[in-house]
Amino acid sequence: MQRTFKTGPSGPGYAPAMNRTAALVCFGIAAMAGVADVSRAGQAAPAAAADAAPAYTADGKLVFPSDYREWIYLSSGLGMTYTRPGAAGSGGMGPMFTNVFVNPSSYRAFAQTGKWPDKTVFVLEVRDSADHGSIVKGGRYQTGTMGYDVEVKDETRFPEHWRFFTYPAPDGPMPAGNPIPKDAGCLACHSKNAAVENTFVQFYPTLLEIAKAKGTLNPSYVHAEEAAPTATP
Ligand code: HEC
After folding, report:
1. Which end of the chain has less neighbouring CB within 10 Å, N or C?
2. What is the number of the ligand 1 atom nearest to the C-alpha of 165?
3. Which of 169-173, 206-210, 227-231 has the lowest mean pLDDT?
4. Which of 186, 198, 207, 217 for a ligand 1 pocket mutation test, highest count of atoms within 8 Å of Cβ?
5. Whose CA is nearest to atom 25 of ligand 1?
């Protein structure tokens, strides 16, 4: 079933034209850096979760990091909108979850410094939600994948250091993603509103504590928070 809805740089939420049934197909990631530990008995312990630098095709598209579910989970937004209330989930669908992942070595670097190292990759996985099913009488749970947004910090490849990509949830192999033009709106919103560099650390509670402790919050974010009313639970 193919559903198309408003999205992207000018839209209220996320999601390109997407196919609801997602089939994740493994692509080869060029640079895999698995680290194996050796136990005292001399046996190899299970390798640490695979980590990957961003990999590109010869024509400059980003290979989708299909192992992102083994990365570090940061948080989930539910039905977040940035323009007007109720925009996400319009068109008969429930509010969407946005699950955010980052590659493990960059997470570890952030935990130590409060900053993102070069070659950091984020995946924002968009899922539909439901409020009926199985034993559920209240609340919402996540269902099918609706698409992905990816963000890369790559200081050698991109003059502005950060680039954004978007992917559908295909039935077949995942196509490589074209870089989204830098004036398309992704970078504009992220650079203006994000708490640390171009990332929305204000919505990832454990990272926000780290950034506060390390003093790496963007001054623009700090000023906006001082002017805004405090968030209520
Ligand atoms: C109007 C503002 C806005 C625009 C435009 C926008 N984003 Fe975001 N983005 C956000 C917010 C807010 C979050 C935090 C989402 C959450 O907590 O689930 C986010 C999170 C992300 C993340 C997770 C990493 C991070 O930076 O925190 C990725 C990846 C991402 N967006 C990609 C994109 C792409 C690709 C586009 C353009 C197609 C885009 N975004 C356009 C506001 C925006």
Report:
1. C
2. 35
3. 227-231
4. 186
5. 199
Domains along the chain? 2-7+15-25+56-181 (3.50.70.20)
Residue 105 has pLDDT above 90, yes or no: yes
Per the DSSP assignment, residues forming a β-bridge with 110 are none
Is the confidence at residue 31, as pLDDT, over 60?
no
User: What does 34-67 look like in DSSP terms, one character per residue?
Assistant: ----B-TTSPBPPPPPP-B---B-TTSPBPP-TT
Burial (CB count within 10 angstroms: exposed 0-12, middle 13-18, buried 19+), residue 225: middle
d(CA 191, CA 218): 10
Q: How far apart are CA 151 and CA 98, in angstroms?
A: 14
Q: Which of 100, 202, 221, when mutated, tests ligand 1's pocket best, judged by the most ligand atoms within 8 Å of its CB?
A: 100
pLDDT tens by residue, 71-82: 999 999 999 988
> Which pLDDT score, from 0 to 100, does residue 109 have?
98
Atom of ligand 1 nearest to the CA of 82: 1
What confidence tens digit (pLDDT) does each residue in 41-50 have?
Answer: 444 444 445 5
